[in-house]
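Sharing in case it's useful to others searching the archive later.

Someone asked me privately for the predicted structure of Glycosyltransferase family 92 protein, so I'm posting the question and my answer publicly. Question first, with the sequence:
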Amino acid sequence: MLVKLAISADDYQESKSIVRCELPPVNYSAAVDLRRPGGEVVEGNWMASSRRAANQTADEEISDSVPDWGKVVYEAILDWNTVVVLAKGLNLKPRREVDPAEFRCHFSLSNNLSREESFVFTTEATAAAQEVVRCLLPRSIRKNNTALAEGIRVTVSRVEDSSASPAALPSVAKVYNPKSHGMRGEGEGKYELCACTMLWNQASVLKEWVMYHSWLGVERWFIYDNNSDDGLQDVADELNSRNHNVSRHVWPWIKAQEAGFSHCALRAKYECKWVGFFDVDEFFYFPRHGGQTPLPGQNSLRAMVSNYTDSPTIAEVRTMCHSFGPSGLTEPPKQGVTVGYTCRLQAPERHKSFVRPDLLDMTLLNIVHHFKLREGYKSTNVAEGTAVINHYKYQVWDTFKAKFLRRVSTYVTNWQDDHNKGSKDRAPGLGTEAVEPPDWRLRFCEVWDTGLKDFVLGSFADVGTGLLPWERSSSSSARRRR
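And my answer, the predicted structure tokens:
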């Protein structure tokens, strides 16, 4: 047995933890258990539980192996009388739903992942697409509030041959009662406007993004942290100390952005009338036309979206994006992206959306920032002259090159891979290696656009110091108040 110190640990879903360990050497099996200092096996650890069930001692060989990431149920969330299960290994094509009759969900009251016979309840799937399978929740479990508070193990099988017993995927997922995890219930009142994003090591820009959009009316923030190690929780804590309603949700799963947004949509459904799915380098902007249009007021974004709340047909509001380049810079702008980057491409590109989470299709099918809507509902496009998104897509090279490490979308090719080179996700003119072009700082610059910069400096800068809110720490703010 090889014993190594853990790399890191993090809280997960309030009642669990995630511990990162190094991969084992090639001549070791991929099995793991946890021990506290001094050799005590962590109580409640599933490996320890399964070993005790087999009457093994801590020094005996571990027979249970870590599930293969390419084939595992990794997350589940309750949605009324159904459970939405997220899984790798379903091998479903993107952008299309499939016949749910192909799938079954299996439920267990046991903590044992490794024995299929512990899954004693089975229900049929009602919807399936991409990495998402929705199944009915067994009636006996639905009424068992104690079990739901502690978590119900769930997995998925594919019915390929009706004459054979389908093999269930390995599972590390449990489904919980949402109320047991602090989610707002129906009748508690919903926020008008929320936002969801997934990020990796972008704590340095989160304050600017949250503070700016909070002024425009976003009331609740769901931050899905995809394995950051740059102090993101500290930034979230500081934002909350300034009365921004931010929750960091640990999302360790690799290349699972679409499923993560499905998960976030269900969380937001309990709390929000509208939720936006956009990135931390994207900023909504209300352009002025020759100075004739009045300056946007506080909560302008919330007011714009809420105009559609009572619509009998509109469930998605789309806004076009302008992509900005490095704007001649070689170092990250100290005052933030909204002030530093001022040159962009002329033609708008992709759009991003706010959606009604209660009006999404049961499959939760999405293409990262766009969801399939329920039948009878449609999207509407905001006129480019009314609002746009400034997408600070091509930043200084030291910031931009991080995109080469990995892409979070399930269906977007990592940039180091030598295929799908024509994808719009890739930067034009770059290959598969993170090599800075000599003229990078001058690229993607067709139109000088200082509109948002001028608005930010005129509306947010401190009169005495000239500092913007995201340049000031909470401690310095506290000193000024004293």
